[in-house]
Amino acid sequence: MLHGMSMLSRFNPKTGAEDFWEVFRRPQPYRIPILLVSTLIPVTVLYFFVGERTMIPPRSPEVTYITTFPEGRTDEEILASNIENQERQDALRARREALEERKREAYRALGRATGLDVDAMEREIAEERAREEAARDQTLSTNESE
Q1: What pLDDT is recorded for position 5?
Q2: Contacts of 35 (CB under 8 A, 6+ apart)
Q3: Is residue 71 situated within a structural domain?
Q4: CA–CA separation, 111 vs 118, rounded Å?
Q5: Is residue 130, in this structure, part of any structural domain at all?
Q6: Is 118 within a domain?
Q7: pLDDT band, residue 113 (cuts 50/70/90)
Q8: Is the pTM of this model over 0.70?
Q9: Considering its fold, how many domains does the chain have in total?
Q10: DSSP conformation class of 22
Q11: Which domain holds residue 15?
């Protein structure tokens, strides 16, 4: 095959430079503009990517701790605030559930208006949820017995 040809002779930069100089010496009206544009493009790219940038480390943030509860609260005060917070959470949950039910009713009305059997769809969804719940309970009971 190519046993006589060495790798160095195939990629010799001297012959490449000689070929370039032979082509460049030929009288052509656009050789200087082409040479300038050909060198300007990589030089411009290198200028933008190699530009020296010095990054200084950011200042450490000043931390301000905010305490929402006074120190030295009694157990009764803690219990009362927990109960108040739980009542607030229950009210939010009830409001969210009412909103979700209104959405479901709107979708039911839309489904009935477009001719879908909404009741059958809800039954299928309930059955699927029951199967998922049973599978989850089965998995939990299996994990607890181990």
Answers
A1: 52
A2: 24
A3: no
A4: 6
A5: no
A6: no
A7: very high
A8: no
A9: 1
A10: H
A11: 8-50
